[in-house]
Backbone:
C-alpha cells in the first residue's frame, strides 16, 4: 500500500497533468479566438451585401467577392460529389470485402501515406493528370477533381473507421434473417456508420474549402470579372482572392482581405453546420 506522502505526490502529479492538458486546449483556442476577432474587427468596415454581390475591382472600395464565392461553392460541390461516393465505396470494399487480402493491405498502407502528402503535390498531380493529360484545361472540373484526390484519403479512412465501429453481431443477425452480404451492408451497416461517415466528410470539406496551393497550380484566376457558367469555365475561389488582395500595396485591400476571410469562415461554418445537423438527424433515428 502507498503511504501518505506517495498518495499526495500522486495527486499532485495528476493535477499537474490535468492543468497541462487544459492549457494545451485553452491556449490554442485563445490564440484562434484572438485572430478571428482581430480579422472580424478589420473586415467589419467592408462587410455588406454590396461587398458579397460585387465583382473584383482595382478600386478597393468597389471590390467584391461574388465570382470567388460562386467559384468556391462550385468547386466544393463538385469535390464532394466526386470524393464522397468514391471514398465510401472504397471504405466498404476494404472493410467488408477485402479485410484480410494482401491487395486491401497494400491499398490501406498507400491511403495512409497519401493522407500526409502536402497539398501542393496534389496540385502538381492535378496539373499533369487533369489539366494537361485529360485535356480539362484550367477549369472548375479540373479543380474539383484535384481537390477530390486531396480529400479522398481522409474520406476513406474516416469511413472505414465508422464501418469498423458497427458491431459484428448486427451483421450476424442480418445474415441469420436471410439477408445477403450486400443487403446487410446497404440496410444495416451503412445506416449505422452514417454519422461517422458524415463526420469524416465534414473534416475533409473543411480542409478542401481553405486550400490555396493546389488551386494556384491548376490555374485558379486571381482577378475575375465574370461568374463561372459551367464545368469547363475558368474560376476563382475565396482563398485565391484573399491572397491576391494581401499582395496589393494599398492598405484598403488588406481590409478587403479581412472581410473576405470572414466570408470564407462563414461559408465553412454554414456547410459544417448543415452536415452536423444531418449527422445528428441520423443519430436520433438510430436511437
Residues:
Amino acid at each position: 500500500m502507498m503511504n501518505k506522502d506517495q498518495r499526495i505526490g500522486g495527486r499532485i502529479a495528476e493535477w499537474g497533468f490535468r492543468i497541462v492538458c487544459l492549457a494545451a486546449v485553452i491556449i490554442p483556442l485563445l490564440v484562434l479566438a484572438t485572430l478571428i476577432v482581430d480579422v472580424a474587427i478589420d473586415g467589419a468596415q467592408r462587410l455588406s451585401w454590396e461587398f458579397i454581390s460585387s465583382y473584383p475591382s482595382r478600386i478597393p472600395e468597389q471590390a467584391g467577392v461574388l465570382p470567388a464565392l460562386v467559384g468556391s461553392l462550385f468547386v466544393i460541390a463538385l469535390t464532394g460529389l466526386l470524393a464522397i461516393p468514391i471514398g465510401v465505396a472504397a471504405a466498404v470494399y476494404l472493410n467488408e470485402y477485402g479485410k484480410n487480402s494482401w491487395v486491401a493491405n497494400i491499398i490501406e498502407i498507400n491511403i495512409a501515406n497519401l493522407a500526409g502528402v502536402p497539398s501542393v503535390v496534389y496540385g502538381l498531380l492535378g496539373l499533369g493528370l487533369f489539366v494537361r493529360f485529360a485535356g480539362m484545361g484550367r477549369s472548375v472540373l479540373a479543380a474539383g477533381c484535384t481537390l477530390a484526390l486531396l480529400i479522398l484519403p481522409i474520406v476513406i479512412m474516416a469511413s472505414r473507421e465508422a464501418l469498423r465501429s458497427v458491431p459484428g453481431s448486427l451483421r450476424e443477425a442480418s445474415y441469420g434473417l436471410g439477408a445477403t452480404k450486400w443487403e446487410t451492408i446497404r440496410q444495416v451497416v451503412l445506416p449505422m456508420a452514417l454519422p461517422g461517415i458524415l463526420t469524416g466528410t465534414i473534416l475533409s470539406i473543411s480542409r478542401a474549402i481553405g486550400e490555396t496551393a493546389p488551386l494556384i497550380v491548376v490555374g485558379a484566376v486571381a482577378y475575375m470579372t465574370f461568374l463561372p457558367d459551367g464545368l469547363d469555365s475558368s474560376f476563382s475561389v475565396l482563398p485565391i482572392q484573399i491572397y491576391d488582395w494581401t499582395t496589393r500595396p494599398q492598405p484598403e485591400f488588406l481590409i478587403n482581405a479581412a472581410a473576405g476571410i470572414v466570408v470564407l469562415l462563414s461559408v465553412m461554418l454554414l456547410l459544417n453546420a448543415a452536415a452536423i445537423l444531418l449527422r445528428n438527424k441520423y443519430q436520433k433515428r438510430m436511437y
